[in-house]
Design goal:
Elements lengths: L20 E4 L6 E6 L3 H8 L7 H9 L3 H22 L9 E2 L5 E2 L8 E7 L2 E7 L4 E7 L4 H6 L6 H8 L3 H22 L11 E4 L10 E4 L5 H4 L2 E9 L2 E8 L18
Antiparallel strand pairs: 1-2, 2-6, 3-4, 5-6, 7-11, 8-9, 10-11
Length: 267
């Protein structure tokens, strides 16, 4: 598996904007919405702030300790509404959510055809939305922290551990962060989260990708081969301090997919 590409998804002035940066994920209808933490306050003021959230979300937000945690929580809840409204057109305050079997936030019927996933870390929030197929996103700081370098590798597949052992210093820390966001994005897309061991699936190149193609596939013995083949994994660098993993499921042939909203770029 290659190291992450050098593509920068955030313009230099992204932190001073009051709206997320949107990328259309070619060739399908999914969109990726990125919001630097530095832009959350301005975005929240523009998007209606905590008044847009449900009573339960406001209660949870009020219980959080620490200004950064509260900022990211509010920003993430507003970001997902902004992203969903870009696909559907309804006002952000009219979105309601439920919990899936493993606790993942989902849309209740009749909105379940529209799928989304959120991730946030120190400095950056991300949301992926697709009108067809499953999706997952994870964003983390790069390189991986020293505690992750100590505790995470034993949980990986043998081939992944061997690849890490062949690297030294910064390259090893970068590769581990890349593996982590891909693993997390895929498990979030499946809806299981970390209830499933990280060693039970691996990633591989799909061959020489064309422009905008997803370069990674998943080898997952717990899925039928045809179902595993529908997953596309992508590794992106929003900026120099973060790495982002995406897992997108291609719709079954003949499954309708709504056209994506207009976006400034295709990634």
């Amino acid at each position: 598996m290659p190291l992450s590409p050098p593509a920068a998804l955030l313009p230099p002035d992204a932190g001073s904007r009051s709206a997320p940066v949107v990328h259309r994920l070619a060739p399908g209808p999914a969109t990726l919405h990125l919001l630097p933490e530095a832009a959350v306050d301005a975005f929240a003021a523009r998007a209606g702030g905590a008044g847009v959230l449900s009573a339960a979300e406001r209660e949870r937000w009020a219980r959080l300790r620490g200004e950064a945690a509260r900022r990211r929580h509010l920003g993430a809840r507003l970001l997902v509404r902004h992203a969903l409204s870009a696909h559907d057109g309804r006002p952000p305050h009219r979105w309601h959510f439920t919990a899936g079997p493993w606790g993942r936030p989902e849309l209740p019927p009749p909105d379940q055809g529209l799928r989304f996933n959120l991730s946030h870390t120190d400095g950056l929030l991300a949301c992926v939305v697709t009108p067809a197929g499953g999706c997952g996103v994870d964003v983390e700081g790069v390189p991986a922290r020293p505690d992750a370098l100590t505790h995470l590798p034993p949980h990986l597949a043998p081939a992944e551990r061997a690849a890490l052992d062949a690297l030294d210093g910064p390259a090893r820390a970068v590769r581990l962060a890349e593996l982590w966001v891909l693993k997390e994005a895929y498990l979030k897309a499946l809806g299981t989260g970390l209830t499933r061991p990280l060693s039970t699936f691996t990633f591989r190149d799909r061959g020489a990708p064309g422009p905008g193609a997803a370069p990674l596939a998943v080898d997952d013995p717990l899925l039928p081969a045809a179902e595993a083949a529908r997953w596309r994994l992508r590794l992106l660098r929003p900026g120099p301090r973060h790495v982002l993993g995406l897992a997108l499921q291609e719709p079954v042939t003949g499954e309708p997919a709504a056209a994506p909203p207009p976006g400034p770029s295709r990634t």
